[in-house]
Every structure is written in structure tokens, then in C-alpha cells.
Amino acid sequence: MSFSTHFSHAITRRPAASITAGLRAVDIGTPDLSLMLDHHAAYIATLRETGATVIELPALEAFPDSVFVEDTALCLPEGAVIMRPGAPSRLGEAAEMAPHLRALYGQVVEISGADSFIEGGDILVTEREILVGRSARTNAAGIAELTRLVAPWGHSVREVHTPPGVLHFKTDCSLLDSYTILSTTRLSASGCFGGYRVIPVAEGEEAAANTIRFNDVVLMPAGFPKTRDAILAAGFALREIGNSECAKLDGGMSCLSLRFTPRA
Ligand code: GLY
Q1: If phi over 0 gives left and psi between -120 and 50 gives alpha, with beta otherwise, what is residue 204?
Q2: pLDDT tens, 136-153?
């Protein structure tokens, strides 16, 4: 079973009422908390239907973007790495996550350099390597520190680039199986996915690139029929989840959970 697509656990965090103050690149409207909660519940139910244990953490009003838990940690089978988010308003979210991972993992290490910044949304774990996109939130020092921390666990890191104007590397791509990546053309054109099979996101549906493969199902945002049909045609089981409210904050399927199988 692939450690990059199959998981025993997920952690999510309930959206806070302060989500209306969440970060966004472009203001396309205030998120509706009630609708976001409905979407969040459907997301969690789908994770659970695969047989996984989902740990639901309470809302953190002091951190408007804290529903996007993926940015706080990288979870590997051998241990977890606590991130240092590059957005100042999100830096404290990592310390809020750390005790929950320490309760589940034997080994938890931290990105600690004062000049190191890295967010989980910029990290794509595949069976053979960890790709990390340098971005406005993730810098070279953060990537270098991650590289040193995961080397003893047998993981290699390859630095790549998040396209300009795109929040995170995984805003534009997702792993569908050990060697298949769903990607926007603007990202795959950089050549970063050599050796992988790439399924292109349909033109005009770039917001569909952020999906997650979680056990036997791909969770994708609703409303992108051409990309949905391409994923189905490639033989994947798929579930569409409403994402209209998280999308107003540049958030997607991967941002909403940490997914892992801790090794005791
Ligand atoms: N609103 C998600 C983020 O900017 O981190």
C-alpha cells in the first residue's frame, strides 16, 4: 500500500467564525461560514467512509486560516515535521498542531530557523521523493532545513517552483497514485514532473487541480466537469465536495486535512 495515497488517520480543524478575515489573494466575496461548515462536514464524512480515523480539532478563533491545517505540518510514516508558515498571521498555527501530532507519533521534529519558512501546501509527497515548491510562503532556508530533517528517515527532497501568483505548489497539482499527477498546464510546463504520468487539468478549470487521493477515493472540488471526467476516465473513484467558500480564501481539498499513518 502506498504511503503517499493510503492513510489510517486524518486531522481536520473546524472553521472559525473569524474565517471571514482569512487571507486571500483577491477578494471575491466573504465566505459563508454556515455553507463552509456543510462542505467541511461532507469532506470529513468522505474521509471516514474510507475507513480512516478522523480527528476533528476545535475552531481557533485567533487564527482565521486555521481550518487549513495542511500548512502546519508534514506527516510521513516515520515521523512528523512541524512547519514554519510564511504568512505572519499563520505562524502560531504550527504550535497549536504540534501536541496533537506528538500524541500520535514517536518522532516529531520542527523547522526552527528564524529565517526558515515553509508551508505544507507547498509540499507534494510521492512514493519516490518529496517535491517542495519555492513560493511566497516557502523559502530556500525552509526547504534546506526540511531536507536535513527528513534525510535520516530515508526521504529525499527536490526543490521546484510554485508558479508566480499561485499560492502554493499544490494549488496547481495533486498526486492521484504512485506515479500519476493531476496538474495544471502552467505548472507541468515547467518540466517538474518528468518521469510521472501527468493528467492535465482542463483549460479554464485550474481551480480543480487541488484534489486529494485518500485511500481508494479522489476528493475533488465540485463544479469542474471536464477535469472530473478526465479523472474518471483514468479509472479513479471520485467524490465531488463543495469548495465554494474555501475557494474564496484560496483553499482546497488538500488544505483541509493532514493525512498520515503514524508508525509507533
Ligand atoms: N487563506 C489561506 C492562506 O492564505 O494561507
Answers
A1: left
A2: 999 999 999 999 999 999
Structural domain includes residue 153: yes
CB 22 near ligand 1, within 6 Å: yes
26, 90, 118, 138: residue to mutate for ligand 1 pocket, most atoms within 8 A of CB:
90
In a domain, 178, yes or no: yes
Q: Which residues are catalytic?
A: 168, 255
Nearest ligand 1 atom to the CA of 249 is 1
- Evaluate if pTM is beyond 0.85: yes
Find the domain containing 139 and state its range: 9-260
- In angstroms, the CA 126 to CA 128 distance is 5
Is 93's C-beta closer than 6 angstroms to any atom of ligand 1? no
Collapsed DSSP state (helix, strand, coil) of residue 69:
helix
User: How many domains is the chain built from?
Assistant: 1
